[in-house]
Amino acid sequence: MKTRRRFIQSLAATATFPLPVIAADGSNKKLRIGLIADIHKDLVPDADERLKAFIDAMNLEKVDAVIQLGDFCQPKPKNQGFLEIFHGFPGPKYHVLGNHDMDGGFKREETVAYYGMENRYYSFDMGGCHFVVLDANDKPEGWKSGYPHFIAKDQVDWLAADLAATKLNTFIFSHQSLERPACIDNQEDVRRVIEEARTPDGKAKVAGCFNGHWHIDHCRRINGIPYVHINSASYFWMGGQYRHDRLDPELAKQFPALASSGPYVKPLFTVLEIDPAQGSFTIRAMKSEWQKPSPQDLNYQSTDIEADFIRAEIRGVDSKAI
Predict the structure, then answer these.
(1) What secondary structure letter does DSSP report for 84?
(2) pTM for this one?
(3) What pLDDT sits at residue 322?
(4) Residues near 298 by Cβ (< 8 Å), separated by ≥ 6?
């Protein structure tokens, strides 16, 4: 598998946008979007503080919009204050549905209404670019239990039509990954639609795909399309066999899942910067630290995730050159 450095270098010849990026005001100024993923309000005790740090940073930087990439919060009345922190950003703000956002027996329609989303999946234009938000929580035929990771035919058909209709460079956001082999069940069908979206001269319309869900720092290119994981704002999930008590007994009762996780000291989030003049995008680096003991201290092992992806940081990505 390519290293991250080789991945970024390999993008240099292929990731220049196929179409000019011109905003509604006729300019080609940079577009900056704040991204945060997997805060897990219902699983960590300091989610409000982590989200507030993100919104404060984005307000200070005056980014053009913010997007949360799922596993945000359950649609409970007691989470209203948390939601209002996100909605306190004065500019455009967008939600992606994560699998844990329907925990507690909630239906997707309830979470969509609670967040104020226009639909489970949707698209919009901003700053001379096109953006698509997908919902990978559909139930495949024969589904019985567990979290479904699937994009149904009606949504795939909608995506194909949406990409065919746009004349703008496109960025796609989903909670679950279109890159990880053991994730969205029909990811190859979805990637085929993405790869077949072409300009009249045969260039790919989709400039990049971004996801959360895995709580890792990783990116790679598949058939010319960059796929970028945005690390969790809160922690890396290890599992019960690595359980370690991290909270006082009372808090531990309220947030039992944290004992099976490797939390980050400071929240992680990033800025996606789209540069029309260069025909490229960047993901800004951000570092945190592990709350001890770290996954490495506990000798965490995984057959699905390379050790290099498990980090208390977001490493910077430049779609054109390192």
Answers:
(1) H
(2) 0.93
(3) 27
(4) 238, 242, 244, 262
